[in-house]
Design a protein that fits this description.
Layout (H helix, E strand, L loop, with lengths): L1 E6 L13 E6 L2 E7 L3 H7 L7 E5 L5 H4 L2 H10 L6 E6 L2 H11 L8 E6 L6 E4 L3 E8 L5 E8 L5 E2 L1 H6 L7 H5 L4 E2 L5 E2 L5 E2 L6 E5 L17 E5 L7 H4 L7 H11 L3 E5 L9 H7 L6 E3 L5 E3 L2
Parallel strand pairs: 3-4, 4-5, 5-6, 14-15, 15-16, 16-17
Antiparallel strand pairs: 1-2, 1-18, 2-3, 7-8, 8-9, 9-14, 10-13, 11-12
The protein binds zinc ion (ZN).
The site of zinc ion (ZN) has 4 residues, from loops.
């Protein structure tokens, strides 16, 4: 599981920073999360293949989280894309994007499938045999969701030397991987744990931006491998955080601590701060396992 940060700064694009967008690579999926202005350029700079993106998750309809979307949708058309593109986002996103395509007479020649969200409860958005994606309802100035990407428990690991030693027929290996006991060629019942090992623990990634400090998030992101939590401000601007429905670095660290996550990734920094290390300095006394997001940074989730 790998997160590539394409942009992690609030509000306006600048020559050296980008608004929110990131790519999560997991089990052959490339999930695009938010799509601020400049996302296409950042995808190119980070050598991420456009055609591998099949699912785009948009947290909310503030411009710094989706103004790059219509451009990307349009580029996919110019690249002669044929595969489906699924876009998950707040109700209204379909109208915004299709109006622009309609007035430009530039309908896509590939299937563009919108999944519009209105629920204020966590909702399963996507699932296959290896991973699930669900919403994390957030509290912001407009309807907003974070997203939780969770691997499913994998098959048990076959200890091939042990399986041979216990004289188990190869056709039973699949049952062993599923955790079943089997009977060996010489008729003995072999307990599963003798010939298999636990699978690697499933990994999970939670993306929470934008949001006011909200302890309702805690049970939803409990024990995740990595939590990206916005920290638009430092405590020096505490008075701005609540009315704008954003969080401070200290508040993000408090959520991480309460949820017992493994790592906290900070981002969505206000452009008023020249040095993002200040965010670590503020958060670390509360929760030390901090990674500062920055544009172009790759983060392994383990
Ligand atoms: Zn916002």
């Amino acid at each position: 599981m790998k997160v590539t940060i394409l942009g992690c700064y609030a509000a306006t694009p600048r020559s050296f920073t980008n608004p929110t967008s990131q790519v999560l690579e997991v089990n052959n999926h490339l999930f695009l999360i938010d799509c601020g202005e400049g996302t296409q350029v950042q995808l190119r700079k980070n050598r991420i293949k456009f055609s591998r993106i099949k699912h785009i998750f948009i947290s909310h309809l503030h411009g710094d989280h989706f103004y790059g979307l219509v451009g990307l949708v349009s580029t996919f058309r110019l690249l002669n894309r044929e595969t489906e593109l699924h876009i998950y986002g707040p109700k209204g996103i379909k109208e915004i994007i299709t109006l622009q395509l309609k007035l430009a007479n530039s309908w896509t020649n590939y299937p563009l499938i919108f999944h519009e969200l209105t629920s204020k409860e966590p909702q399963l958005l996507f699932e296959d045999t290896k991973i699930s994606v669900s919403t994390i309802p957030l509290k912001h100035r407009v309807y907003t969701n974070g997203f939780l990407f969770r691997e499913k428990e994998g098959d048990r690991k076959l200890l091939i030397n042990e399986a041979v030693k216990y004289n188990i027929d190869k056709t039973l290996y699949k049952s062993l991987k599923k955790g079943k006991d089997v009977v060996s060629e010489d008729g003995k019942l072999i307990a599963n744990h003798l010939v298999t090992a636990d699978p690697p623990p499933p990994r999970s990634y939670a993306f929470c931006s934008d949001t006011v400090y909200d302890e309702d998030i805690v049970p939803l992101v409990k024990n995740v491998s990595a939590l990206y939590h916005e920290s638009t401000f430092l405590e020096d601007e505490f008075d701005l955080a609540f009315p704008t429905k954003h969080s401070t670095a200290r508040q993000a660290a408090t959520i991480a601590k309460l949820a017992g996550v493994k790592k906290l990734i900070l981002g969505h920094y206000s452009t008023r701060y020249d040095d993002i290390e200040l965010f670590r300095t503020e958060a670390a006394p509360i929760f030390p396992e901090i990674i500062l997001a920055d544009d172009g940074k790759e983060i392994t989730v383990e």
